[in-house]
Amino acid sequence: SSQERSARLRRWYELMMENKEELARIITAENGKPLKEAQGEIVYSASFLEWFAEEARRIYGDVIPASAKDRRVLVLKQPVGVAWNFPSAMITRKVGAALAAGCTVVVKPAEDTPLSALALGELANQAGIPAGVYNVVPCSRQQTAAVGEVLCTDPLVSKISFTGSTATGKILLKHAAGTVKRVSMELGGHAPFIVFDSANVDRAVAGALASKFRNSGQTCVCTNRFLVQKGIHDEFVEKFAKAIEKELHVGNGFDAKTTQGPLINEKAVEKVEKHIKDAVSQGASIVTGGKRHSLGKNFFEPTLLTNVTTKMLCTQEETFGPLAPVIRFDTEAEAVAIANAANVGLAGYFYSQDPAQIWRVAEQMEVGMVGVNEGIISSVECPFGGVKESGLGREGSKYGIDEYLEIKYVCLGGL
Fold first, then answer.
1. Disulfide check for 129: which of 124, 290, 351, 358 has CB 3.0–4.6 Å away?
2. pTM here?
3. Does the keyword NAD apply (predicted)?
């Protein structure tokens, strides 16, 4: 029942909070994220179980006024069935909604980070989630494509929810088309961060630091390209460089002073190097950073580039690493056009103290989420998702549970 689902999700949330230190250490051990950030992720992750524990009891249908006197028209909301979740990071954002709606789930965690999903499974058992409701299927990188195809094509699976790259999302969509499965996709981002002449530069620098370098630039909503208006360009770059050098510390995630851990694997490091090499070959300048860190092959220096153009790789595709390229622009229209030129649109940010400009730009940016004078925007109460090739559907918020519900119309005649 909805009450039972609510109670068990709530207990799962409580167990996550009771074990948050151990869960955070698992995250740091398997992907290198600084422990303080990992602790914050556990609290954020657990909050989705708390939120959807409450939403489980608020899945309301409707009674619609009928066009005929002898009829009654009802709308019921029912769980879609078995949901396959393929998350790279946020498991609870999907699983909490699915279980609240009454679905069972099969979780396929990213091959680099399976331990967190398995730890959540242990706590789900302790919370009284019945066997077979929360299922985890880890596998090697070599087997991932085959496992994905099976889960996408099996008729017993009614719904797919995926977090990951746009390229992989397109493959899963093709597989899902054969049985016309419900899908929600949270795919790649290429977030612009615009700083207008009217901005408070110090606040913009603080927001840029948080938005770009959280988890060493490895989140889907991390800023990928900075657009700075010519009037404050030099001041912003100077202050941003000083902030990077003063406030960011590369190191072991378990070291208390570390703010930047390693990248997830060497392939990720190679992509950052490729983007820097391409930019420099076309005239970009390295202000700070620019190379692998002496700590080891997966560690990379936080890097700031200037004299960047829209023809460079780092402004055409997502880097997913600690690289901040800065493009100088002249007019608002130019900045909006550059920001919207991408074929994806997950998050976008801009700093301005002009009220009219704030309304114009917020409405014109082709993204699913906009941060205005704010670099960190994720929250359990707010809908998370993108437009264009950044995906389909929304997670979290009051809208998130709808992704796991079917709407059934019932007409009662002969009354």
1. 124
2. 0.95
3. yes
